[in-house]
Amino acid sequence: MAYRNEGKIILTSKKLTDISLLPIVKKECRPLYFKYRNFEYVETSRGCPVKCPYCVESRLFSRVRFKPATNVLEEMQFHHGHKKKRITFVDSNFSLSENHVKNICELIKKEDIDFKTIFVQMHVDYTTLEMLKTMKNKGFYLSFGIESLSEDVLRNINKTSNPANYIKKCIRLLKFCKKLNLPVQSNYIVPLPGIKVYKIIKEIKLLQKISTVALSFLTPYPGTPLWEKYKDEIKNFDLNTFDCEHVILRNGMKDEVLRYIIRSSYSKWHLKNLIKVFKLFVP
Ligand code: SF4
Asked: What's domain 24-218+253-281's superfamily in CATH?
């Protein structure tokens, strides 16, 4: 366990195995601006068994742990009481356990908690149609880490054990979300190794027909297999730029090509959907 005290980072030998023991961070311990923002973060689980080579989650947390739904509810009620309108569940993969999702949804319904948005990150392989039905009408905004719709690329990044099935399921899930009126976002990484520019644009356009699309630039975080593979190709080691919004790799695609992808993917779509997205995130 590690914590900061008077500016110093203190490392202890204690291991925190039960995350339900973590207290709600009281407002006196937070910077002042936290008081004025209208959203908050809640962690309902920690860890992910999928080992995508670009992701730090499984390297930081070796096993998956869940918080009891009652603890999650208590935390949500706390923030609701402090007039927060939006919650982000910071879990890297909220869809890991159908029971966990069901228990939280039941408590949200029973206690009638109404957040304007509850943002969650999901994985296609773990999400079921039943899970989506349970999440309907509770304020959820789903974000799927889809990353690519090309079988070879998905195989390279270890996103799934069955790429062909993953792609079909991905389209089915996004269409089902649309039918249920569940807001949904597809996350797509550019440029993943082995993909051609025309394919990137084609895949993004397909996803845009059935969801909002968010693009991220491939970012090799220290400690990940991607870092080992590409550490000699990094343009800039300033970790402040490791936010998936900066082009970090030298040998990826040229900046002009990436700009072209963004322009051709977003121009028309963006105008059409900007107001829709704006309404979801602004009070
Ligand atoms: S599925 Fe998501 S959280 Fe899990 S390792 Fe891959 S990117 Fe990370």
From this structure: tm_1862 like domain (3.80.30.20)
